[in-house]
Amino acid sequence: MQTTVHTTVRFSGIGLHTGRPVNMSICPAPSDHGIVFERADIRLGNARIPALFDFAEHSPLCTKIVNEAGVSVSTIEHVMAALAGCGVHNALVRIDGPEAPVLDGSAVAFVRSILAVGVKQMRAPIRVIEVLGTIEVHTAQGWARLGPGEGLTMDFHIDFADRAIGKQSKSLNLSNGTFVRELSDSRTFCRASDVDAMRAVGKALGGTMENAVVVDGDAVLSPGGLRHHDEAVRHKMLDALGDLALAGAPMLAHYEGHKAGHTLTNMLLRELFATPDGYRIRECDAVLAARLPGAGVSAHEIPAVA
């Protein structure tokens, strides 16, 4: 059955790119509502934005959704990953600014709060998106691919010049609590050489050594170092789960990303839904639901390092 959060959970922090203070609440919502963001600071007109792939604008540094009135919310990928990874299908996310709070740069604070209040089952069945064929998109930087899968599995590969990151690959079956255990505490990262360039174009204004892993050559500059030796590729997988959640339902698919980012994953979803024989919508039975991300997950699975 579909789920929502038992009660409202609240967060306060700053936006990674805007640097502005922001308050955000994840509120219960009815069946078939999906995940919808609402700008609480906008009093007139349409302030709601469905968290769906066709509301996303292509952006290399974050995921940004925009409605027909031009109202937007950016950097939603960590929140979306937490909701998907905890098995939450319906929620109203109320936010009083244009960007979600970055908190520690991972999704673990969202996960901890969601699991603390618990997830409530509803009376409507879960509908899943079953990928039937292979869909692939390329850019000059990398590629991403979706193929059939019995649950949601993911392979990801990254390659950075800085030796502190270098080449990293990871494969995971994201069923049950894998996201919470393996990915939720992995933080966003950047190269020290990129910080000034990002700030020159109005990005990363809220970035600090406490909410991002900053590397320079073979050195990790952030206090405390890495939470995982392969934290960078784990975070890329976290982002990919959040971006895939913009499909609007859990997916039965195998996702592969090679140097992929937000834009490529959104291009992949657009290509999938433009291919009518590439997928089908089906209702879940108990056996299938048990293979989805978040099924049966509990708070004790949150990594101790976080």
TrEMBL record:
It comes from the Bacteria. Catalyzes the hydrolysis of UDP-3-O-myristoyl-N-acetylglucosamine to form UDP-3-O-myristoylglucosamine and acetate, the committed step in lipid A biosynthesis. GO terms for cellular component: membrane. Zn(2+) binds at residues 78, 235, 239. The keyword Chloroplast does not apply. PANTHER family: UDP-3-O-ACYL-N-ACETYLGLUCOSAMINE DEACETYLASE 1, MITOCHONDRIAL-RELATED. It catalyses: a UDP-3-O-[(3R)-3-hydroxyacyl]-N-acetyl-alpha-D-glucosamine + H2O = a UDP-3-O-[(3R)-3-hydroxyacyl]-alpha-D-glucosamine + acetate. This is UDP-3-O-acyl-N-acetylglucosamine deacetylase. Belongs to the LpxC family. The gene is lpxC. Its cofactor is Zn(2+). Gene3D superfamilies: lpxc deacetylase, domain 1 (3.30.230.20), lpxc deacetylase, domain 2 (3.30.1700.10). Pathway: Glycolipid biosynthesis; lipid IV(A) biosynthesis; lipid IV(A) from (3R)-3-hydroxytetradecanoyl-[acyl-carrier-protein] and UDP-N-acetyl-alpha-D-glucosamine: step 2/6. Its EC number is 3.5.1.108. The keyword Ribosomal protein does not apply. GO terms for biological process: lipid A biosynthetic process. Keywords: Hydrolase, Lipid A biosynthesis, Lipid biosynthesis, Lipid metabolism, Metal-binding, Zinc. It comes from Marivita cryptomonadis.
